[in-house]
Amino acid sequence: MNIDWQELRFSYTETDYIVRASFHGKWQDGRLVGEWGAPHATRDKILPMHVCATALQYGQEAFEGLKVFRGIDGKIRVFRWQANAERMARSAEGLYMAPVPTALYGQMVQMAVHKNKKFIPPYETGATLYLRPLLIGTTPKLGVGPGWDFEFIIIPSPIGPYYKEAHSNRIPCQTFIVNRHVDRSAMFGTGHFKVGGNYAASFRGTETAHLQGYDCLFMDSRYHRYIDECSAANFIGIRGNEYITPRSSAILPSITNDSLMTLAKERGLKVTRRHVRLDELNGMSEAAACGTACVISPIDKVIDPDNNITYTLPQAPGPVLLGLRNALQDIQYGRAEDKHRWCTVIN
Ligand code: PLP
Ligand code: COI
Asked: What does pLDDT average to over the chain?
């Protein structure tokens, strides 16, 4: 093993072990009944699967993402794995898959960390160990409908910052371009679940934006008037003393956003979740995308090509969001008291 921690980006680096567990059951009176087997760690990263597995045929797949930090005190901290487990259970139910019980999820997170301790980057590097929990349907089926066998896998990978320049302690700004011709998800669709299909569906927007040198801002699918999500991250805007973030049935309830809202309230900010019109960017002093991978990534400009308007954010990165970013990272790295018990210390 020879990893240059400073060179890590948000990409896959293989570790020693993944952790797996299988569910086998059946559908009975509209309910999935069955049992999860004991989890096991394996070095084998190849998954033999039937070509008709429901994950492959009908997209029965959900995933998650969470980070493991090496703190200033040398301790290992996993950030909000319970919130992660709950969100995955909602995604599983949303796609008629077997939810992973929280206790099993926690046990497997612990195993994944223990078995791959040497892949947790040192404190000073700013890199972390990312865990990618993955749930897939493995029942061979051609008839359209949910399966009854599932595989839950935790895939660890050390990662660096989501955006390149973030290593030199400069937090890079992102420019977003509005796309009203591609919707990531529909109003009563699966946008609030973390399922692979949403990401495949978003590529027409995100890859087009990348070719132009931007990231994609998704709008609400009904009116294309309100901000939904910033590529694969939630949107936050600051106006005066107010922290504003979209309320929408089509966006993923971000655990980072939830944590930042708590910290914002503690700092005396007013936190508002509501529909956010694009032209409200005019009144905002700061805006950012937020998520596990990027934490907070400031937005310097938003381009609306349909109306030939460019919104320029006056202060990016601005003091309010930078303060919140630092407050969150201080907790994650053990530099500040963890009042909300967000971190699980693993020995
Ligand atoms: N929105 C989407 C579509 C995402 O994929 C993610 C990443 O998980 C987020 C928002 C941010 O969520 P979280 O803060 O829980 O990582
Ligand atoms: C995040 O973790 O913030 C994300 O946006 C998820 C993505 C990398 C799949």
From this structure: 96
| Cα 96 from Cα 116, distance rounded (Å) | 32
131 Cβ inside 6 Å of ligand 2: no
**Span 297-312, pLDDT tens digits:** 999 999 999 999 999 9
- The residue to mutate among 185, 190, 216, 292, having the most atoms of ligand 1 within 8 angstroms of its beta carbon, is 292
Q: What is the pLDDT of residues 243-263, one digit of tens each?
A: 999 999 999 999 999 999 999
Which residue's CA lies nearest to atom 12 of ligand 1?
254
SS3 326: helix
Alpha carbons 179 and 196: distance in angstroms, whole number? 20
Residue at 332: amino acid letter: Q
The number of the ligand 2 atom at minimal distance from the alpha carbon of 254 is: 3
Domains of the chain and CATH, by start: 5-160 (3.30.470.10), 167-332 (3.20.10.10)
pTM score, whole prediction: 0.97
